[in-house]
Amino acid sequence: MRANPFLATEVTALPRLEDLVDRGRIYGLFGREMAEFSSREKSGGAAKSTVSQHRGMVYNCLHLLLGKRKRVRLGRITEKDMDYLLGELRRLGAKDPISQVRVFAVFVSFSTGEPMLIDPGAYGRACGNRAVLLAGGPGGGPRRAEGGASDRERIERDYGDALRAFREHEGALGLAPSTRSPHCRRVRACIYALEKGRGRLDLPSLGAGDIELLKGILADFGVQDVGRHVSAFASFLSAATGRPPLVDVGGYGAPRSGWNRGFKEGFRFPAELGEFIRLSEARGVGRDQIVATASRVVACANLLDRVQGPRGIGEYDLGSMLALESALSGMIGEANVRCHLQSFSRFVSFTAGNDLYAELRESRSDHIALDPASEQDERFVGRLRAYAGHLKEWECKPATIKGRMSSITVCYKALRSVKGDFELEDVDPVDFRKLRTALAGYTEATARNYLYTFGWFIKFATGYDPFPDARIRFNGETVRRKFIFNDEWVELYRAADVTERLILGLGAFMGLRRREIVSIELDDIKGDKLYVKGKGAGTGKVEIMAMSELVRRDLGPYLEHRERVLSEYGDRSNGRLFINERMRNVGRPMSVRALETVLDGLVKRSGVSFSPHCLRRFFATTMKDAGVDLDTLRRMMRHSSIDTTLRCYIYADPRKMGAAVGAVDRAFGALV
Predict the structure, then answer these.
(1) Backbone φ and ψ of 642, nearest 5°
(2) Rounded to 5 degrees, what are φ and ψ at 134?
(3) Number of other CB atoms surrounding residue 126 within 10 Å
(4) Residue 598 neighbours by CB distance under 10 Å
């Protein structure tokens, strides 16, 4: 999809806004401040790519402020200006507007030496999950929680005995290394922060006033989880000095076994859990993580027995996950709930093939990527959610719903940029003509699909589709499609392994689409017949196709290879033919993205550039060269219209134009 030069800021991610920014002018005005900002970020441990990204955010904010007034003085920027920037970035559809405004607030603080105008808390995540600390007080620069590497080494050296006592104390409590490590990081962060105000710390002399000071420093600097940091530091002081904690640490660092007491006995699936643990060990998972995962699985299974009654592993479903989530929510924190659900889902998926956590996420995903910034946006998002529900009722596939939600959001932002605030009932054919102009930077086919989809949405919401009455004419531009031919095919097939050969065969010998390939189940193979689930609502249109002899030749070696993989790593394929063979998802069904990744590796080895759909085009051109008539080819391609076969496959063949040019040379060569 090509970039839209007119609406880069309104409908796309923020990097396109940079095309409109006059960096030379801005650097001429704020060059010294920009250089100091980058220097302080680098000294704080930020990566080069992060520094570059943050500079771009600052440029964007300065560009918007200079568009508002002729002159910008950093010392006179107020919270009202920050609100203006946030509103403009949201209106223009910018990516992560809150992070950008917070980065700009840090830049202003650096430049003026004044405290932050807004809470920069999320800026820590923008720096790569670093807690924000300002070296030397407000305006001092973002740092790692414990400072740089030299600071951490110094803290370990200066407070080594106290830190060792703290680690021994936590080890005596039975805490795993994976738990003790973040506790020590928080302690080092508190030491580093408190030293900024107190200098070298005398631990026995610290009192409750120092703890309150620490809370204020951490809060001012935007550190996440201030309470956990303070509790860790208080527990550290207690272990180092032998005194009671200065504040109530609430059992910080003690094993949290109270909530699941009584959920450890009577586990009904020890054999399955043993196999799951052996698989995890074979994959190199750490012992501490295995123990934690097994503990979560046991607690979740026994808790479900109380909530829903005993069930088999294969009987757990989405309702079970919802019930488990509800029960856990009253016992542990949100992040811990998520860890338990994921661990239990992995266990069920390994044993029965059901990825319950994926079902839970999908049930809550409406694919709407728009943060409402006004009442009009709230009403639009409400109707868009209703439309997404309508599409689900019609059994549209999640990928279809996601694509339509994205198209409608793009059109909404684009129309809002040229029309201002509007209600869906006010959209008329003239607005669609304006929208077509605003989408001029997109390919014609993309713009047409966007307008069709937006019209359907308007009709769902209001009962009237203005798009047909707009009478927009399209030029019918030619779409450049990539083709491969015989020589390239030979190189691909020679370089492919058993999995890649079967994928190549299904695409080139039978003309299957990528999603149709990954959707094949073992039960779909009936002798020399293959049940193919194609495009359409629900499971799609089911076609019974004869399997090519060449495909059956490659199927046998792949099935043997598949069996070896599943016997070693466990069968979590849920009956799918193609499985993942890499990383932690070994044995799970292969996704479209995973299939593309597999073929990307083949591209690198063979040197032939192609996409999965090139295989379908190769099938069409090869059948046409073999003399298959067009109607038969249409049915083999499973097209409802011959026009699609001709326009997208036959007429698009680049060899036709080359042959025509040769005919011109032969016809007119004797005349000149």
Answers:
(1) -65, -25
(2) -105, 110
(3) 23
(4) 20
**What does the alpha-carbon distance between residue 480 and residue 235 come to, in Å, rounded to a whole number?**
65
CA atoms 572, 574, 578, 583: torsion sign: negative
Of 301, 355, 359, 307, nearest to 330 by C-alpha is: 307
Read off the pTM.
0.50
What is the C-alpha separation between 72 and 104, in angstroms, rounded? 13
Two tokens, residue 670: 């004797």
Least confident among 7-21, 189-203, 244-258, 276-290 = 7-21
H helix count then E strand count, the chain: 30, 3
Q: Are 316 and 348 in contact (CB under 8 A)?
A: yes
Helices (H), 263-366: 270-282, 287-308, 318-329, 334-352, 356-363
- C-beta of residue 166 within 8 angstroms of C-beta of residue 185: no
What is the per-residue pLDDT across 136-193, written as a single tens digit (0 to 9) for each? 333 333 334 455 667 778 888 889 899 998 888 887 776 767 677 788 888 888 888 8
The β-bridge partners of 670 are none
| 424-457 pLDDT per residue, tens | 998 999 999 989 888 877 888 888 899 999 999 9
Q: Which residues pair with 589 in a beta bridge?
A: 579
Sign of torsion over alpha carbons 391, 392, 395, 400: positive
Q: Which two tokens stand for residue 158?
A: 């200066």
* Alpha-carbon distances, residue 114 vs 134, 141, 193 (angstroms): 12, 12, 18
CA distance 293 to 286: 11
Answer for the pair 357, 321: CB distance below 8 angstroms, yes or no: yes
**Contact in structure between 636 and 623 (CB atoms under 8 Å):** yes
